[in-house]
Amino acid sequence: MFKYVNEDQIDIELKCTICDEPFEAPMNCATCGNTYCKSCILKWLEKQASCPSCRQTGAAFQPVISRVVRNQLNRLLVQCALCKYTGIQRSNFNDHISGTCPKYIIKCSNNCGWKGVRESHQQHLITCRQNPFPNSLSKFSNIVFILILSTLLYWIFRRSDK
Questions:
Q1: In a domain, 162, yes or no
Q2: Which pTM value belongs to this model?
Q3: What is the Cα gyration radius of the chain?
Q4: Where is the RING-type domain (predicted)?
Q5: pLDDT at 33
């Protein structure tokens, strides 16, 4: 649900040669040391029993544990496909989606069955039938209106009695 910002400027050493994208869960071939995305190499191995680079049959693959590589990948900037915001590091993308993306579809926090974009949730809560605190301001306004009307009617009828 994101695309890379300035993808043409991403170091080729951080890209999988199978999908040509920056590594996701990078895995190294134990024989030649070439790196691939975990999902890419698993799909490859379903069809071919060898490493795409060294062609070693039955080659073992292990997760990349280099903190430097993982940090470089995590710092890559991405653009959210939903809201188009571009200032997100790849490692923070899930936080953006789960917490702040205004275009992400969410369910009503009151479990009323409503689904909509996060930016519409506050507006929905005003009219939500399950809202334990419906729009307090409108209720207050109605109470004030009734008090004023009652007072006015009281004075009108009181004067007419004289």
A1: no
A2: 0.70
A3: 30
A4: 16-55
A5: 95
Determine the straight-line distance between the first and last CA of the chain, rounded to whole angstroms: 75
CATH number of the domain where residue 79 is located? 3.30.40.10
What is the C-alpha to C-alpha distance for residues 2 and 95, in angstroms, rounded to an integer? 13
How far apart (Å, rounded) are the C-alpha atoms in residues 28 and 36?
A: 7
For 37, other C-beta atoms within 10 Å of its C-beta total 21
Domain containing residue 82: 2-99
Q: Rounded distance, CA 108 to CA 40, Å?
A: 37
- The C-alpha atoms of residue 146 and residue 153 are separated, in whole angstroms, by 10
**pLDDT block averages, 10 residues each, the chain of length 162:** 94 97 97 97 95 92 94 97 96 96 94 94 86 60 75 77 60
- Structurally, the chain folds into a number of domains equal to 1
